[in-house]
Structure formats: structure tokens, C-alpha cells
Design a protein that fits this description.
Shape: globular
Order of helices and strands: HHEHEHEHEHEHHEHEEHEHEHEEHEHEE
CATH topology of the largest domain: Rossmann fold
Number of strands: 15
Strand order of the largest sheet: 3-4-2-5-6-1-7
Number of domains: 2
Structural class: alpha/beta
Low-confidence stretches: 379-415
CATH architecture of the largest domain: 3-Layer(aba) Sandwich
Mean pLDDT: 84
CATH superfamily of the largest domain: P-loop containing nucleotide triphosphate hydrolases
Length: about 425
Amino acid sequence: MGFKVFNLDPRLQKAVDEANYTIPTPIQKEAIPVCMEGSDIIGTAATGTGKTAAFVLPILNHLLKTPSHGKHTRVLIVAPTRELAEQNREVIKLLGRHTHIRSAVVYGGVGFTSQKQALTDGTEIIVCCPGRLLDHMGQGVVDLRKLEIAVLDEADRMLDMGFLPDIRRILAALPKERQTMLFSATFAPELVDLINHNLRNPKRICVNTEAPAETIDHCFYPVPENQKTDLLLALLRKIDDHKSILIFTRTKRRADIVMESLERAGFVTGILHADRSQQERKRELDNFRSGKLKIMVATDIAARGLDIQDISHVINYDIPDTAVNYIHRIGRTGRAEKTGDALTFISADDESEVKDIERRLGTAVERKRLEGFEYSKYDVPTGRKYLQGAGGSGMKIHKGPMCGSWGVKKRGRRR
């Protein structure tokens, strides 16, 4: 039956079919009926499992079934980053393409005027970041008295970014009689108090938050720190030109250095981190999403909510600092039931992070090496001849092919 089991408005079903949504993901299958019945909900599921459509479809269906008299904002979706706000808006536009439902985004880094008009003009769905919405609320231009649905998207990420006081202020200004949806990749204990004071008898749905999606083939590549860039270049030259690759670093400076190294080697590369202006970030993301740009280097600003369906490879140039961030990062690939490959470079100083990831996953992550690449004699764990056949702490070295299927990389054009 696919999505037809939800009995969506025919206009939505048509958009679902055109978007090639076929079988609902587990979070969609569980959450959509609950959202459609009007219950408050807490939905947790791993990154890349379709949480956005799980609340957007019920919202659009509600707005179509219960048309409003007069113009006012009926739905508020709060997201932690501009990128996620934009992506929520894109899903709304995609699934609402055959309706007349209006939506707008409200976030910092761009002008107030068009946002103010959307807020005063009765746009049905407002997708916002907390800070900028509070700015508008402070100017008295926001009328949320008739709001029907509030959504907190990536709630755990908003906690990480220090938005909890802002979220409380926003929720306090909303009508008590509303439906509230909270979606998150993980469930942080700090959310309990927020839920107890702002949700009414919420139904809890938890789907596979502890492990990467089964569509992701992920592995570790042990490599000395000073050989990371050489290994990255060697790997990229073996990946087919048509693949879409996201490379993560821990710091902005590191991202800049990696991008410069790739461009010197002839790869056309984009970059995404907090020092880039909103216009620059949007342009790079648009080019990456459309396929004009095949390689993106990013910090963790892109680890949450970056919903690009066709990322074929994630490469962790630097291992993430926590197991949760590892799952979020590699969840940028293997989305919407498509397969993807995630490769993580590990070096001598990463032993604690490696153990944390494997403890969280409950299993060892396969170690692999790139055939034909000249490794140094010493690698992780510290000081051991790790890649020369001495198994170190018992971790397996796989001398076969790399993750996934690989083609031959032609040298990219210099930008």
C-alpha cells in the first residue's frame, strides 16, 4: 500500500508519488498516524530516516482538511540551524506543491523586511530559528494567537547549541490548546522538563537511534596523522566522478586547509562552516544539492539536518568527538533507502573516540586499507606497526577493496 495507507489528501498523495516516496520509513510508518490524529508526539529516530516528512505530511493534511477563515500563522516549526530551516521549507514546498499552502523561513543573517511581511501577512507555516523569531516577537510583529501546531525539530541539537531558554520563551507565547511535536535524533535527559511543561500526554515513538542506517557501509581507515591528506587524495581519485562526497573536519581552520589541498590537486571543492556568510553557505549547498558541486568540506554545522538525498560518500577526515556525532555525520549518506559509504580516518590519538563509537554501536567497526597506498610503518594504536600485520589491540585489518563499489577518478578541473 505504501503511503496510500495513510489516506492523505489526494493532492498530497500526488506529490508523494511524484517525489518517488514509495515505502514509508519506520519513523514515518509509526509517527504519521499519531500526528494525523492530533496527539502530541515525541519522535526519536536516527539521522537520515525521514523524520521531516513524518511531520510535514500530517501538517499539510491537517491544513487542507480544516481550512481557516482569515489569514494567520497556523503552524510554527522551530529548527536549530538556517540550513535545517531551509530544508524543512524545501520538503514543505515539495510535498505541498499541488496545494496553495504558503510557507516562509525566518532566521538571522538576512534582511528583516520579507520575514516581517510573512509574519504579518498570515503565512500558514513559518519555519524559523529561535533567535530571529524572538527578535520579531520583541518588535511585536508576530501574531501566534491562533497557532494550531508547533514543531521542535532536532530538539537535542537545539539543546547542544544553548537554545533551551529561547525555546521556553517561544512556547510560553503560544496558545495552550495546540498540538506539539518534538522530533530528535537522540533523547537527552534535559528534554524531560521541557516536555513535562509543554506537551500534553505525548505519545513516544523511538526507532533505531543507536546505530547507523542499514543502507550505510561504514569502516575505519587507520592512517598516520601526517598522511591523512595524501590518503584522502588517493581515495578521491578512485571514486567515480559522478559521486557526491561530503568530507568532515573538526575545525573551521582544518576545513579551509583541506579544501585548499584538494583544489591544489585539481578537485573542484565547496566549503561549509560558520565563518561563511549565509549567502555563501546557501550558494554552496544549492550547488551541492543540484550536483553542480561534487565535493563539500564541512565542519559539524552540516552534521545535523543536512538532507541531501544523493550523497554517496561521507569521509571523516577527523574522527567525531562523540559516538552520537559519528552516527549523525555518517547519516548524511544512505538516506531515503539509498546505499552509501562512510569512511573514517583514525590515527594514534583517536583511540578513546574509536572505543566510544564501538561501545555505542555494540560491535567492532571494520578496519580497511587502500591497496597501493604507501603507508608509514607506524600507525594506531600509538607506536605499533599497525598496518604492517601486527594487529595492535586485536583489531582486524582488511586488505581487500574499500567500502562500496569504486570506479576510476579523473582529475577534476581547477576552480
